[in-house]
Every structure is written in structure tokens, then in C-alpha cells.
UniProtKB/TrEMBL annotation:
Co-factor requirement: FAD
Keywords: 2Fe-2S, FAD, Flavoprotein, Iron, Iron-sulfur, Metal-binding, Oxidoreductase
Signal peptide coordinates: none
UniProt-listed Pfam families: Fer2 (PF00111), NAD_binding_1 (PF00175)
Alphabetical list of CDD domains matching this protein: fer2, PA_degradation_oxidoreductase_like
Superkingdom of origin: Bacteria
Protein name per UniProt: 2Fe-2S iron-sulfur cluster-binding protein
Source species of the chain: Streptomyces polyrhachis
2Fe-2S ferredoxin-type domain segment(s): 284-373
Domain FAD-binding FR-type: 13-122
Taxonomy of the source species: Bacteria, Bacillati, Actinomycetota, Actinomycetes, Kitasatosporales
Amino acid sequence: MTAPAPAASRQQAAFHPLTVVRVERLTEDAVALTFAVPAELREAYRFHAGQHLAIRRRGAGGNGGGVRRTYSICSPESADPAELTVGVREVAGGEFSTYANRELTAGDVLEVLTPAGRFGLRERPRPGGHYAAIVGGSGITPVLSIAATLLAGDPQARFCLVRSDRTALSTMFLEEAADLKDRWPERFQLVQTLSREETQAGLESGRLDEGRLERLLPALLPDTVAAVDGWFLCGPYGLVQGAERALRTLGVARRRIHQEIFHVDDGSAPPPVAPSADRTPDQASVTATLDGRSGNWEVRPGETLLEAVLRNRSDAPYACKGGVCGTCRAFLVEGEVRMERNFALEPDELEAGYVLACQSHPATERVELDFDR
Ligand code: FES
């Protein structure tokens, strides 16, 4: 079994102009974008299944400062390293996703950050391992890569994919998931649920919520729900939270659950924690190390640490600025911070001392961050 390739380190993280070689329509509101990766950049763009790419379109955005968005890689690790493919679903008012779905064509050039993100398997897979995923909507994108990588890398591995979409027509990567089933019919189990119509298999329509999963999963995986080596949850906040609660109720250990949240727009997210006045120092500074170079700068009142760093180092990593993608993850070397919200870091990363710079406000006069760790 091939172990997942290590993620490119932060020292190597950099934007490069990559040419779009294909724009393929997946659904009425989603496309797959394939970039050509020149030979000299293949090592920098080597990824592990589950990672994402931040894409920057210069000159766009309200102030012309450019728009950055993050999209997961759907290709398996074994794919041709000369190409990288991501899935982009158009969201209402989404500046980049609308452009990608309606205007972008082959031959266009975009700036693409080297792969980042920690979703996926953190350790070498156990030979003959059993894996499963619960995904909603575009949450299929990284899981397609993870499933194909695990199944191709180990002839004994098994994977169960439970996906939830609104309708059959809105389902991204329908053919690609069916291809996995055709290729590994004994080892890949696919269960499609639709919230707004019945499936061909006769599964009831409706949301894939906590209660439904508690009934469905033991029926799908009799006696093995808690024994599955790794559960991958990906999609909207409400679905991922409900799936995690269902798995915990069914006896799955926390360390076997890996999750990535794509959208936090369903009203179910906890409100942001505003920095409290009594924990906000009158004056604060941040020291940040990026690509081996350090600097120390003032943090203005109300600013996040990312905003303070970006005023001085435009190469600071970020994409969503919403606490969701994890691109701005940094190690807290010194001081204390208050994070407004966190949908990206796992409990073990928080315990290890990582924070999201886009959500962090200083709680001590001096704060030091290391973006390279
Ligand atoms: S930029 Fe996405 S979590 Fe901070």
C-alpha cells in the first residue's frame, strides 16, 4: 500500500500561474477545472488525497485586489501529475464560482497555490483497511480522491460512500463515483440519498440528518460501524455535525473521524465569538514567520492577526477568511489569542497549538505565529 504523499510544506507554498486545459460541465451549476502542471512544478504540486488548491484571480473583486477561493482536488494521487482537477459549484453571489461556471475557458490562466489542507488520512493506511464517508453536495470532491487513492493503493481495502444530494441532476461527479463501483464492485459500496426526490433504490427522500444516519449506518455496515478504520465527513456544517454526532452515538472513536466543512450558511453554526474587551490589550504586536523570514508588526484595534500580517506580507496564506478552509493555519509560538470561530482545525491541532490567523485576535500584548510549521 502506498502511503499518502506528504503535503507540500509551508516553506514551498507559493502561487504559480497555471493554464486551464479543460472546463467540464458536471451539473447545471458545477464544473470540473483541470490545470496543466508544467514539469518543473510537478513536485511542488504533489498532493495527498483530500487536499485543496487556493485559486486567485487577479484584478477581480470589489477593489480590484483579486479574489481567492479554495477548491478540493478530485483526482486520485495516482493521476497523471501533469494535470490537477478541482470541482467548482456555483454559489449564489459567488464571484469566483460564477466566473468559473460561466466565463472561464480552456487556455485561461489563473494563479494557483500549491496544495494545502489536512483533510484525509493522517497516517499510513492499515493493509486491508475499511473506510467510509458521509458527504453532502460538493463535499464529494475530496472524498472521490480519497476513495480512489485508498482502493487503488491496496487490493484489500474497502470503502463505503454515503452521499446526500438535492436531486440526481444536481449530483456532482455522478459518473466518477459510478466508475469506482464498476472498477471495484466488491470493495466499493455506494449509497445515494436525495433530499428532494426518491432514489432508484427506493430510499426515502429527505435530509440525511443525525437520526436518519443512526438508523441507516448499522443497516449498511452491520456490526462494523465502530470498527471502520477511518470515517471522512465532508459537506455543509449541519450535515457534518449531524454525522459526527451519529457516529459518536454508534460508538465510533473520535480519532477515527476526519472532517472538512465546506459551507457554513445553513443557520446551524454557532455565532462567532467577538474578542472581549477585557482580554484585548490596548496595544498588541504580532511576530510572524513566513517562508523562513520573520517580521514584527502592530495589530490595530479590531484587526485579526491575518489582517495585520497581510498589511506587511502579502504572501501570507489565506483563502476563505471565514474559519472554514484552514489555509491560514499557523503555530502559536508565544502569547494568547481569541478565535472568533473555527470550522477547520481538529481538536488535536488546537491542542498542539495551532490557530487560524484569520479568526485570531491578540489576547496578550505580544503574539508570535509561525506559518511554516
Ligand atoms: S483563510 Fe480560511 S480558515 Fe482562515
